[in-house]
Design goal:
Largest sheet: 9 strands, antiparallel
Strand content: 25-35%
Length: 378
């Protein structure tokens, strides 16, 4: 989580090829989607599976949808150790364990094991600036869960445990930048602390499930939950990732795997020109409408990839006098705030910013930008 983070350096150059690589295990899934090789990482990817090998560490990996709807994440190390995770996004159940490959018995995670998973995580984040399939989500979520995990400990966690309730996570997306109370238990004593959640992509990132507070931050999976905040506070108070904070870590696991990605722009946004945006994001694609001041409702299309947001609007005929026909917002988005520059087809340009509303219904924005509106023709 937030307290445990490492400086990730670039680890290679991505080179696309037209060679089909079946991957480490030869699973029977259709992998003839994206075929990629880099200096040490090879993988094949489709909507339902990714399989590959990180040659520098002799680490094989896969994430694939099985017939029962579960996603199986399989990470195999060169010394015959295996991390196997069974994840179901429909009912939010999971089973994750680290075992000896031959005997199937649990073994402890060593420093070299955790370092190998950490390096694979960093490498994959270079290749996937956004999470566009459930199999990528599951693979990165499991690796995210291991960041900060202490060596010498077993890993065997399941949603069937009495310690973990189904859907046991509370999103803090709407509370990023605000003060929230976190609670944790040490022995028989319960402690409460008031702390600021986030911010998204920088600082301590309190409440974030996993690392990601580097500058610039990794763009994938910006999940903030109450349970991850509770664990952050416990770990900060005790200096222990597990130990007295084991219950808090167990409670946070569901959030790592299933919580809402706060970087998803779905919702209502208010910009500095008084426009109200109703957006829906699916994978990296963004669609919706924007209600402008004086020029009516416009269609919106765009994308959100790796904190980079592009929104293009088109006026719906009939076009009113002194209104333009299209304009584009280009900039960055960090969870619930976004800003940068705009241009329109009428030759005008300027700067913009907008914030996400906490209301699920349309809100009224107050304009505070000087100069012409993006929707105006002059």
């Amino acid at each position: 989580m937030a307290k445990k983070r490492m400086d990730i350096r670039a680890l290679g150059i991505l080179i696309f090829t037209c060679v089909f690589f079946m991957g480490a295990y030869g699973y029977g899934h259709d992998l003839q989607g994206v075929i990629s090789k880099s200096e040490t990482l090879e993988y094949s990817k489709s909507e339902k599976a990714i399989t590959g090998k990180y040659s520098a560490l002799n680490l094989n990996f896969s994430s694939a949808v099985e017939k029962d709807g579960y996603i199986i994440v399989d990470l195999r190390l060169r010394d015959d150790k295996q991390l196997i995770a069974k994840i179901n996004h429909m009912d939010e159940t999971f089973n994750i364990k680290f075992i000896a490959l031959k005997s199937g018995k649990p073994v402890t995670l060593g420093k070299e094991d955790l370092n190998a998973f950490h390096l694979l995580h960093a490498k994959l984040q270079q290749h996937f600036l956004s999470v566009d399939t459930k199999v990528i989500d599951a693979l990165l979520s499991v690796l995210n869960l291991l960041e900060g995990y202490p060596p010498g400990e077993f890993l065997d966690v399941s949603s069937a445990s009495k310690q973990i309730k189904p859907e046991a996570w509370t999103s803090l997306c709407e509370s990023i930048g605000e003060t929230v109370t976190g609670t944790y238990t040490i022995g028989s004593e319960t402690h409460s602390e008031n702390e600021t959640v986030g911010p998204c992509g920088s600082g301590d990132c309190l409440g974030r499930c996993g690392p990601g507070c580097e500058n610039p931050p990794p763009p994938t999976l910006q999940r903030f939950t109450q349970e991850c905040l509770n664990h952050d506070l416990c770990a900060g108070a005790t200096g222990k990732w597990l130990g007295p904070c084991r219950d808090e870590w167990d409670a946070a696991v569901s959030g790592f795997l299933f919580a809402t990605d706060c970087e998803n722009v779905t919702g209502v946004w208010n910009d500095t020109y008084g426009s109200v945006w109703m957006l829906t994001q699916t994978d990296t694609s963004v669609r919706g409408t924007v209600e402008t001041l004086g020029c009516g409702t416009w269609h919106v299309t765009g994308s959100n990839t790796g904190f980079n947001l592009i929104l293009t609007t088109r006026n719906i005929p009939p076009i009113e006098e002194e209104c333009c026909t299209t304009y584009t917002y280009t900039g960055t988005v960090y969870c619930n705030t976004a800003s940068a520059t705009w241009t329109n087809e009428c030759g005008l340009s300027g700067s913009w910013s907008m914030t996400k509303s906490s209301s699920a219904t349309e809100s009224v924005a107050t304009p505070n930008n000087q100069g012409p509106s993006p929707a105006s023709s002059r």
